[in-house]
Amino acid sequence: MTNTNETHVASPSIKSPMASLLTLLAEQRRSIISILSIFLLSSLFLFLLSSNFDRFSLASFSTNTISSSSSSPSHSPSISASRKELNSSLPTPPPPAQPDTTPVSEQDEGEGNEVFDFKWEICAVWKGLQAADYIPCLDNIKAIKALQSRRHMEHRERHCPSPPPKCLVPLPRGYRDRVPWPRSRDMIWYNNVPHPKLAEYKKDQNWVRVSGNFLVFPGGGTQFKDGVRKYIDFIEQILPAVKWGGHTRVVLDVGCGVASFGGYLLDKNVITMSFAPKDEHEAQIQFALERGIPAMLSVIGTQKLPFPDNSFDMLHCARCRVHWDANGGRLLLELNRVLRPGGVFVWSATPVYRKDEQDRTTWRAMVDLTNSMCWKTVVKSKESNGIGVVIYQKPVSNSCYFERKATDPPLCPKKDLLIIPWYLPLDDCISQINQKEPVEWPVPWPNRLQTVHSSLVPEENLITDTTHWKEIVSNIYLTDLGINWSSIRNVMDFNAGFGGFAAALIDMPLWVMNVVPASGPDTLPIIYDRGLIGVYHDWCESFNTYPRTYDLLHSSNLFGNTTRCDVIQIITEMDRILRPGKWILLEESLDILKKVRPVFLSLHYKATIVKSQFLVCQKSFWRPDNIKKGS
Questions:
Q1: What ranges does the record give for the region Disordered, renumbered to this chain (predicted)?
Q2: 590-602 and 567-577 helices, crossing angle to 10°
Q3: How is residue 268 annotated by DSSP?
Q4: b/e string for 246-281 if b means 16 or more Cβ within 10 A?
Q5: What is the mean pLDDT of residues 472-488?
């Protein structure tokens, strides 16, 4: 039998011409199909790649500005630009991607395709000011020049520009991420706060020294000749009832310098609100915040401090250069307002221990004023180095006031409704102590954090709020958002409520500035009663702090409850306050998050919506090249 397979393996020499032609055409057809297939697959891949790129590029912004019930009035100007113009304003690439810690489907949930087209510019400032340190409400030179008087420090008070700025502050040359805490208490990068004037001016008092690339803080001060630690111990030695960190938890340091007093009290479990004006002591509050110590810019001039009545356990002033008896004693009356009944005022100044005529005159005036206010001199003593301290105590009832032979200063009328001290003039009278219920000192720290006076808030409300924030922080904030908490020291809560967010973070090596909006419910007394610190503020204006002073900005339902302010202005202020590389964490409705996210993206932030409830934004080091005209 013949093998049929052999007939198909004929050699080329015997293949017919027609068979050869058919074979060649078949091979060419297969090649053409292969080429076409590769071309179509390549085209499809490029199309998908392009679509995916557009999804995460600037095309994902909407062309609308933010306009909702939470934003500024609807007459805000519409801001738009072509995509070409927007792309041309991006001189540097976006920041490195933040590590993703949640599933992609969850991160992308509801982020939308809104575009925010806006030409961001660097703030232009008056000659003599540094744009990198711009504080809008304290650097309004036009308003300051128009003042009729500066006698009572009016030029150091707030004078906010109208409308608020929508420009960005530049970075100092050579700026870098801050020195980590606790090392930062003793040294910071010079380039981050490049101001050597104070180091030269106070070189003999160990406030601060320039050492290579660093500014070093030895823990000295005008009154701390043997160091601030010994000074702190000396106060407790002469008045053991102070009981740092137990009985005394919340302190106000007036004219704080670089805040070394408050910085070292942290070792005693004491939280100090340190403040000083923006004055010739160049950048002292900026130094404090760069060190990781709670501080803010303020002055006792003609207006009340932005703190509630009866808040601080202790007031402190070490050579703060305040003339307490001036202007009818109004400055000391203001301290009396914020001091808790039974609290003490520690005054360390030359009139306490020097005997020259000027100091003697000042001392006699202080004796007369404190006696008229019913302040009791608890102790007057000297350190071994000759520095003297006097400690006064505020009464716990009104009985002494009624028994005075003289009625100057007079008693203030009783208040049926407390008015938040925001742009209010100083009183020329003594604030009466509310005696509807017995005056009780807060329970010792740390139990104080969970227990407040029943007249401030029902216990069940505080428990509910505390439990809520503990769950949010432990189950979401610390685990699901990709925030590097080990790099965070200075935190600000824009809408603090009862201080539950701060309370949930109490065991972490950070501190929280609890801000209570001046137009909302007054919960700040509760925050102080819990042993935390905070301040009143109106977010339609800039905050009294330097740029780049906070590592995390947090807010819960701020934008949803803000109808008077321009949301873009609030975000601009957030950018001014926040350090590069650090985070903003917002809790809002999904609708609001979709509207504000494109604004952060336009600032080159990494901005991710998580669980349809939170927006996590990380600031980059990007700054625009152009400077705003006509500022």
A1: 63-110
A2: 60
A3: G
A4: bbbbbbbbbbbbbbbbbbbbbebebbbbbbbbbeeb
A5: 97
Q: SS3 string of 583-599?
A: EEEEECCHHHHHHHHHH
Cα 416 to chain centroid distance, Å, stands at: 33
CA 235 to chain centroid, in Å, comes to: 31
**Alpha carbon separation from 444 to 245, 249, 340, 487 (Å, rounded):** 8, 8, 15, 30
Residue with tokens 């093998």: 3
| Structure-token pair, residue 359 | 């100091």
What is the CA angle 87-90-93, rounded to 5?
Answer: 115
| pLDDT band at residue 58 under the 50/70/90 scheme | very low
3-state SS of 242-262?
HCECCCECEEEEECCCCCHHH
Q: What pLDDT does residue 304 have? A: 98
What is the rounded distance in angstroms from the CA atom of residue 526 to the CA atom of residue 51? 52
**441-459 pLDDT per residue, tens:** 999 999 999 998 878 889 8
**Residue percentage of the chain with pLDDT more than 90:** 68
Residue 303 DSSP symbol: B
Report the distance separating Cα 227 and Cα 384, nearest Å.
13
Contact call for residues 68 and 592 (beta carbons, < 8 A): yes
In this structure, what token pair is assigned to residue 480? 């699901």
Pairing of strands 250-254, 312-318: parallel
Residues 145/558, Cβ–Cβ less than 8 Å: no
Query: Are the C-beta atoms of residues 261 and 171 closer than 8 Å to each other?
Result: no
Residue 398 has pLDDT above 50, yes or no: yes
Contact 352, 346 (CB under 8 A): no
CA–CA distance, 407 with 394 (Å, rounded to integer): 17
Convert 437-456 to b/e letters by CB count within 10 Å (16 or more is b). eeeeebbebeebbeebeeeb
